[in-house]
Each structure stands twice: as structure tokens, then as C-alpha cells.
Amino acid sequence: MSPHDIESLARTALPEMIDDLRTLVECETPSDDKELLSAGLAAIEDLALRRLGPPDDAVRHDGGEHGDVLELLYRGTSETTVLLLAHYDTVWPAGTLTEWPFTVTDDGRVSAPGAFDMKCGLVQAIWALRLLRERDLPRSTVRLLLNGDEEIGSPFSRPHIERLSEQVAATLVCEPAAGPDGDLKTARKGVGLFEVAVEGVEAHAGLDPYGGASAVHALAELVTRIAGLGSREHGTTVNVGVISGGTGRNVIAGHARCGVDVRIADPAEAARVDAELAALTASDPRVRVSVSGGWNRPAMVPTPASELLVKQAQSVAAELGLTIRETGVGGASDGNFVSALRRPVLDGLGPVGGGAHARDEHVLLAHVPARTALLAGLLMAHAE
Length: 384
Fold this sequence. Notes:
The two termini are 14 Å apart. This protein has helices at residues 3-12, 14-25, 34-52, 96-99, 115-133, 158-165, 215-227, 269-278, 304-319, 335-340, 368-381, and strands spanning 57-61, 69-74, 81-87, 103-104, 109-111, 141-147, 170-173, 184-188, 190-199, 203-204, 237-245, 251-252, 255-264, 288-297, 326-329, 345-346, 353-354, 362-364. It has eleven helices and 18 strands. α5 packs across α11 and α9 packs across α11 (368-381). By secondary structure, it is of the alpha+beta class. β17 and β18 (362-364) form a beta hairpin. It is elongated, with a radius of gyration of 23 Å. A six-stranded mixed beta sheet has the order 1-2-6-3-7-16, sandwiched between helices. It has a four-stranded antiparallel beta sheet with strand order 4-5-18-17, covered by helices on one side. It has a four-stranded antiparallel beta sheet with strand order 11-13-9-14, covered by helices on one side.
């Protein structure tokens, strides 16, 4: 049976896949709500049980305040093992569905919070494996890792991802594809999350205007310097996204702070940015500046091992009548951790659509069968 045959099966199953996607989307899973995350993971376990039967092994890791990590093992016809990464948390707060319900539009889109990033990729992974298992087709052994903290940097799940990626032939990330043609992601920027805190000297703005040292004024000076750390030449971007400080309009501010997001394409840029942030000082010597935070994810850069996976994917895509390309994007994923360890990883195998983290988030349903078949074809390729 060819990938083209699997695509036909997936097209027939598309109404069921849409129902499964609705089930997962309607279980809201914001990263900061443990109770909802637990309910969402239970829904995924139930879906996997219904579509795949009992796993050959299951290991749950208690995430504490974060979502739990669940490992599900499904033995294939080959001992070669492939790791599938899929996070079940979303950026959308509880209650978003009330004003933005799951909707299938007339032009073939699913519009819903979390549908594109990345619950549809999770559904596609389950169905790719289902279509292979129910026809007992050649396939690799699959270890499916589900984590509920990806959108906040995977602080709990990272060591589990790194551990499992060492034990497999390849890691396939079911994050959304890039662009309208479904490009694969072989490069992603590394992410640094920092906070710059400024401590000044409080005073009455009218009675003692020169006795104080304003932390807010000092931070205003620093913001342009911080933003200036970006480098188009090296693919480094710096965004000051949040600013707070002061206690009143008639008080010279004694404190202020800002949140900084840094994205790097070149791993070497991390050391430069670190040094520049550490060297920040205010023009007023009475003001103290401190920097906290650090690097949330390393950069993903193409490696020879990952390029082999791209060629495999392109070969499967050709059997589906598709031309598939690779690209780099500014966002990060759990695949960054695997890439930084120089292990084979391929990202962007999820749905085609758009609007991740935005109110126009959507999945293009016409592409779902082919994307499911693409993933199934890769699992078949690793059984050889």
C-alpha cells in the first residue's frame, strides 16, 4: 500500500478526524491551568484508546504545577523506533471557546483556538498510526510524547524530550507546517526570555524633583539600547514587550522593569546578547540595573541527519504528487532541544493553515489527508 492509498483512506476518514479535532479543541488546555490540562490529557488518552487500542506501554510523569508528560509506546513491525512530539497546551485562556467556538466554515476551514497549534497535528499523528495499524502495514515502533508546557518553554518536559530523543532513530514534530504550501521546518530561532529591573531613588516630584533618581526615566533610556541589540545581518531580533514601574504621577519612580524577548538564528549570538545585557548601566549613577532570565530554547539549525529526514519526506511527498520544501521560521518548538543535541529531527509535519496564537487561527481541511499520509509514509520508511 502506497502513501497515495493511505491518503485516500484518510480522506474517507476526514469527518471522523474533524470530530476528533472538535473533541480535543473543546477541552480547553491553557498552559497555566493544571486542572484543565489534566482533563485535556485524559481526553487525548481516551481518543488514543478508541482509535489505536491499548498502548504497549504507558508512562506518566507528574508535572507538578505544569501539565503532565505522557509517553505512549506502540510497537510496530520493526524494532526501529521513532519519537513523535506533540504538545497539548495552548496559549488561549480558559473561556475563549465561549466567544470563539469550534467552527467548520463553508470554504473548508476549521476555525478554533488551538486547532492549528497544535491539536490537529496530534489528531493527524493518531490517525497516521491508526491507518497503518489497522491494515498491519510495515511501520516503525512509535513512542508518542505528549506534553502540556510547550507554550511556556517546556520547563518540565525538556529533560524527558532530550532523554527519549537519544533512544530513537528520528524525532518527528507534529507542529503546524509553514506557509500555504506546507513547508517543513528545519531551522527555528533560539529564544531568550529576560527581565531588566531598574532601582532608582523615590522622591516627591514637586517638592524634591532633583533629590530622586527616576527608575522609569532610566528604563526609557535603556529600552532603545536593548532594542538595538537586534541584528538583521545575523537574524537576531529583540522585542521589549512589557514595561511597568512607578507608584504615582507625582512620585519620582523608585522601580521599573521590562520583559525582553530575544530570538537568534545563529547560536553564537547568545554570548553577545548575554554580554550586552550584563553591561547595561544607567546614565545616573544612583540607579541600579539588574538582568534576570536566560535562554529558553537553543536555536534549531539544519544538520546532516535532519537533511536525510527532509529527503525522506520529499520522497514520500512525491508519491503523493506533492512538492515539499524546507524553510526556517522565527518561532521555536520542542524540536529545538533535539536539534541542539545534533540528533535527527524534522519539524512542521502537522497541518497546513495559519494564525497561530492569533484570532484567525485555522486549519485548511483539504490538506489534512495528505499531511496524515505524509507522516504515515515516514513511519513506513523507518520500518525498512
